[in-house]
Amino acid sequence: MALYDLPLPELERYLPDLDEPADLDDFWSRTLAEARRHDVVVDARPHDTGLRLIDTTDLTFAGFDGHPVKAWVTRPAGSQGQDLPAVVEYIGYGGGRGFAHERLAWASAGFVHVVMDSRGQGSTWGNGAHTPDEGGSGPAAPGVMTRGIEDPHRYYYRRLMTDAVRAVDAVRALPGVDAQRVAVTGGSQGGALTLAAAGLSDGLVGVMPDVPFLCHIRRAVDITDGFPYGELVQYLAVHRTAEAQVFGTLAYFDAVHLARRATAPALFSVALRDDICPPSTVFAAYNHYAGLAGQRPETDIAVYPFNKHEGGQGYQLDRQLRWLRSRVA
């Protein structure tokens, strides 16, 4: 993929107009209040992975409407008597939590690490998932992008983004976690959930979205043929009169709108040849980040000029480890 979006100097100052719904804050306030009526930790039991330097817990927490959501919790072996900082990680589109031994970097670095399962996903790549999507929906194209798209209250990402916020609530409720030092991270869809959690949770110590999805959605649909945004095009090619309704629903879940409500320091990443999450959509979120905070917290963005949607991979994780360590020291 050649460079196809705006030149980097224009991306760095790209600040598009917003189309936030007037009741966005009320919508999310009511949604989260309903979810928080349920005790957040449903079950937490030790899980034997065969690893000797890492302790693992199989966590079930109450997500949207109290639905049970699975997560892996890993931490350095023998550290249960210490209150450690924590990192909540969200998974990319189509994947699930897989095996607990697949993601060990954060626990190896001295953090409690929580990997949230993505409800109703886990059958596109990786090693599977364990959380069904207990929610209704109308007609949908393949994948989850159009599941319940006719109504923001029934839309799939209302459930998944609520799960993301409740994962933060859950880790703060676990023993051996410093509730004041919780960070969130994820790539692609996980990056969108990271920004949603940042905008809808208080007191995070760090926010690390990589090549985030669901940002400046209308522009993404207009400039890339890539999927999952292509699911919206596919849906609208059949439901020809639903354009206003579809984009009206999506406005409640656009990560640019939610990122404006964040207050924590952030480290983004973007790949300039990314044909799945176009660079301008990522910069829209980065440039609008914490726009309602009054004073912008420390923010930075790592730019990978020659990469596609894989972004920085190990290079970005190395940067995250160093960046977050300085935040929680």
From TrEMBL:
| GO BP field | polysaccharide metabolic process
Note the superkingdom of the native organism: Bacteria
A single Pfam family it belongs to is: AXE1
Which residue range or ranges hold the Acetyl xylan esterase domain? 1-325
The UniProt entry annotates the active site at: S188, D274, H309
UniProt GO molecular function: carboxylic ester hydrolase activity
> Per UniProt, where does substrate bind?
Y93
The cross-references to InterPro entries, in alphabetical order and at most eight, read:
AB_hydrolase_fold, AXE1_dom, CE7
Chain segments carrying region Disordered: 123-143
What parts of the sequence cross the membrane? none
Q: Which Gene3D superfamilies match?
A: alpha/beta hydrolase (3.40.50.1820)
Q: Which PANTHER family match?
A: CEPHALOSPORIN-C DEACETYLASE
- Protein's name according to its UniProt entry: Acetylxylan esterase
Q: What is the lineage of its organism?
A: Bacteria, Bacillati, Actinomycetota, Actinomycetes, Micrococcales
